[in-house]
Amino acid sequence: MEYLIVMRVIDRSPKVNYIHTTMKSLISSGLFKSKIPFEIHLFDGGSDSVKYLNQYRELKNLFIHKTKFKITRNENWLRSVDYIKHTKHQYVIQLEDDLLFCNKFLESIDAYIKKHQSLINNNPMVSFYAPYPEIERRTKKKIEYWPGTFQQFYGTQCVLFKRDIALKAVKYIRDAIKNIDTYPFHFRKLPHAGGMLGACIDLWLQEWGIHEYKHKAFILSCPAFVQHIGRAEGKHLHQSHFIGENWSYIK
C-alpha cells in the first residue's frame, strides 16, 4: 500500500500551537523511519508566515504548502484531500494538527486496512478516531470496528479514503458549499447550516455519506489510533478511547 498523509495546519500563536506536540508524537510513532511508502504534506491555511514549520522541513518525505491569503477550514481540508490527484498513492489519510498517535502509526493503519480490506472497500470512509463510548465498549469485546451511521459521525481527527472515493468526496462537498442555498439537506435545515460554509467538514461528510452511500456506513476503528488534544478554556473539547502512544495495532 502507498499512503498520502495530509494535515491542515495553522499558526495559532499567541494561543497554543498544538502542531509541535502533534509532530513530536508523530515522529515518536516511527512514521519517518517507516518502510511503507508514504508522503506527508502540511497544508497551512493562511498564517502570516510558515516559519513555525521550519523545524520539520528536513523530515523524510515531508512537504509544506502555503497560501497567499487566509482560507477557510473547509477550503484547506478540501485542497489537502484533493492533492491525491497529483500523486499515485492508493489511500489518503487526512489529519488534524492537535493529536497524539499510537506507536507504529502507519504500520498499524496498513495492517488494519489489509485485515479489513473487504469492509473498507465496500464503505466510503474509515475514521481512526470517534468520541463515543461505543469505541471503548467494542474494544473491550475485542470487536475492531463500529459501522457508525452517517449522522453519528463527528470529528475529522484522522480519516482515510481510497483514492477514487477521496476525489468524489471533494467534488461533492465543494459543489454543495457552492450551492448551499439550494442544497437538499438531509440532517438539518438551511437556516441552521450557515456555519457549514467555512467549517464543520464532518457535517458535510454526514451529508455526502447519506446522499451518495445510503446503505453504507463510516467504519470507525476500535480503539482509536489517535487522540485529540485540542482544548477550549482549559478543557478537552472531546476525546476517544485511545490506549496510548505506546500501544500499537500490530504486535
Describe, in plain words, how this protein is organized in 3D:
The chain is of the alpha/beta class and 251 residues long. The protein has a single domain, classed as Spore Coat Polysaccharide Biosynthesis Protein SpsA, Chain A, CATH 3.90.550. Helix content is 29%, strand content 20%. The strands form three sheets. The protein has an eight-stranded mixed beta sheet with strand order 3-2-1-4-8-6-9-7. Helix 2 packs antiparallel against helix 6 (163-178). The radius of gyration is 17 Å and the shape is globular. It starts with a strand and ends in a 15-residue tail after the last strand. The relative contact order is 0.19.
At a glance:
With 251 residues, this protein is α/β, with parallel strands linked by helices. It is built from seven helices and twelve strands. The two termini are 19 Å apart.
Overview features:
globular, eight-stranded mixed β-sheet, single chain, 251 residues
The domain tally reads 1
CATH homologous superfamily identity: Spore Coat Polysaccharide Biosynthesis Protein SpsA, Chain A
Number of strands: 12
Oligomer: single chain
Distance between the termini: 19 Å
Backbone structural class: alpha/beta
Q: Indicate the CATH architecture.
A: Alpha-Beta Complex
Low-confidence stretches: none
Q: How much of the sequence is in beta strands?
A: 15-25%
Please state how the strands of the largest beta sheet are arranged side by side: 3-2-1-4-8-6-9-7
CATH topology: Spore Coat Polysaccharide Biosynthesis Protein SpsA, Chain A
Q: Mean of residue pLDDT?
A: 93
**Number of helices, counting only DSSP H or I runs of 4 residues or more:** 7
Element string (H = helix, E = strand): EHEEHEEHHEHEEHHEEEE
Biggest β-sheet description:
8 strands, mixed
| CATH class call | Alpha Beta
Q: Tell me, briefly, the overall form.
A: globular
What Rg is obtained from the alpha carbons, in whole angstroms? 17 Å
Helix content: 25-40%
